Amino acid sequence: MAPGGSACKEVVESHPSVADYDIATAKSESNTTTMKSPVSLLGKHGIHSNNGVYELLECPVCTNLMYPPIHQCPNGHTLCSNCKIRVHNCCPTCCYDLGNIRCLALEKVAESLELPCKYQNLGCHDIFPYYSKLKHEQHCRFCPYNCPYAGSECSVTGDISTLVAHLKDDHKVDMHDGCTFNHRYVKSNPHEVENATWMLTVFNCFGKQFCLHFEAFQFGMAPVYMAFLRFMGDDNEAKKFSYSLEVGANGRRLIWQGIPRSIRDSHRKVRDSQDGLIIQRNLALYFSGGDRQELKLRVTGRIWKEE
Questions:
Q1: Where does the record place the RING-type domain (predicted)?
Q2: CA torsion 57→62→63→69, rounded to 10°?
């Protein structure tokens, strides 16, 4: 049992239907569609500024709003600290050496400004002082979610309904209704752990969506299989639910019980924290039965809402 798990005393009842999954070699997928919102350049109460102050705070290189330290060249051209490194300390407007001149006047002007959250068009209508806006946006509940699909460099972001449709239509992920499941994962050559496909199934349960991950990877020198659940929503909502996973055969079983992790946490972060059911390959093959030359691992589980 992985660290942090706790054993259930009762036997988990599984969904009547059984799903079989072949674990194949992963193929890199490319999907560059994004749903990200542009940074808002509106003034307080959503009124456009007429004096060009907001335009002055845009970095001419990356076009993002600038935050201290704001740099300027001897001729007064400004840019952000990140782009100062990118242009090798040479002003992109007049080619003068930038040196280490701070534009303190512009930094001071920024302190008096108030701006809406850049996720305003997604539902956040709060107004923030200029220097508080960035911190808020990092934790804004209206911030789009990243696609939870693992094993590909998918850059799609959006709200939950958008991502559910994206997973179904673009990644061809299996969708199931219900809070119990009974899946069998099959792999003809279980000795090939590297580049095993990440398996993902989405469950509609309690009016929410949950992502069940199953994968193979090297943990140190040992090849292992791991199953874990992620919640399609924020962490405060995820903590309202619990789940259990069970695998076993021949009178033996492993049981994991935990809280689903929000998809705000990346797939790799959850996997590397070992927050799920971890099965060593030799034990997985023992559970598979037969001559242990083929993986046939049955994983059952359920999701419930905490009172």
A1: 59-94
A2: -10
In the structure encoding, which two tokens stand for residue 228, read together? Answer: 């874990």
Burial-class residue 307 by CB neighbours within 10 Å (0-12, 13-18, 19+): exposed
CA atoms within 13 A on the CB side of 251: 0
Query: pLDDT digit string (tens) for 138-188?
Result: 888 889 999 999 866 789 999 999 999 999 999 999 999 999 999 888 877
Residue 30 CB-half CA count within 13 A = 0
Residue 272, burial from CB neighbour count under 10 angstroms (0-12, 13-18, 19+): exposed
96-109 pLDDT per residue, tens: 998 889 999 999 98
pTM to 2 decimal places: 0.69
Question: Domains in the chain, ordered, with CATH?
Answer: 52-138 (3.30.40.10), 149-305 (2.60.210.10)
